What we know:
38% helix, 17% strand, Rossmann fold, binds NADP nicotinamide-adenine-dinucleotide phosphate, six-stranded parallel beta sheet, alpha/beta, 9 helices, single chain
Amino acid sequence: MPKIKTILVTGQNGQLGQSLKALVPQNQPYHFTFTGRNELDLSDAQKIAAYFKQNTFDAIINCAAYTAVDKAEAEPELAEAINHLAVKQLAEIAQKNDSLLIHISTDYVFDGTSCRPYSEDAAINPQNIYGTTKLKGEQAIQQTACDSVIIRTSWVYSEYGNNFVKTMLRLGDEREQLNLIFDQVGTPTYAADLAESILKIIDSHQNGFKQEKGCLYHYSNEGVCSWYDFAKTIFELSAVQCAVSPIETKDYPTPAKRPYYSVLNKAKIKQQYQLNIPYWKDSLQACLNKLK
Ligand SMILES: NC(=O)c1ccc[n+]([C@@H]2O[C@H](COP(=O)([O-])OP(=O)(O)OC[C@H]3O[C@@H](n4cnc5c(N)ncnc54)[C@H](OP(=O)(O)O)[C@@H]3O)[C@@H](O)[C@H]2O)c1
């Protein structure tokens, strides 16, 4: 593989895209190009082909995705186009151009029936359209023999866009009491931590790190919590006076079914790329400091 000089980041307006953009000043050796749906619409195969006729990159970080988990149940074709077919096309383009493809996937490829953290080779069984289309994206990359790294992550939040932390801060100000699900357990991921790790992964490949193609990794912050614990901690750390009551998933029906348990085992990515991953409460504090 050639040295990595040019990097394309898709999904520039999303949480991870914006978190990567914030790291550009510290990563000057690379030349970054950021695209949103206006420059590169991943729901349109012809536009993707036309874009890559004009532009080539040494690495592509695919942060774009159809991420509206509930809405995907009503828009399966669009979710399929962005999360599967576009990813397949990106993998084929990466293979043709000898580029490294870094792709982000999800804990929702699992059914949540485990009670031990999921490793990369655990049985997959997505429970909703979003998870199904994301899994097909992963598999399409693995079937294409392109140089690639697939990172499954979970419960992403940041100072950008819409996410659980920002929703809780808004609702915590508006209401005196909130009901939060306590029987879905996972680990939050601060997008800034993931962004930093992705750039370390690129550095490792730049320095000659070799692995099998389409290698899967799991990444979240350290620790475990429920949405109830997550909300309680957001309020505690930001001194918001809002009572939180635990409820069960069955008391908060949503169009998409979600896994009860989706804690990811991160041993492989930590070992392979020598990553130190922060504890989720420490990263939450860092994000809250930025939001102040
Ligand atoms: N958020 C989570 O909790 C979570 C959990 C597990 C895995 N992940 C995965 O992590 C990655 C990053 O997630 P995120 O939280 O940063 O997502 P996000 O904030 O929802 O950003 C996704 C981006 O994709 C863009 N996009 C959507 N449709 C597009 C299209 N047709 N063409 C081009 N761009 C399009 C969106 O553009 P607009 O801004 O124009 O809408 C948005 O900027 C995704 O692969 C996601 O599946 C996320």
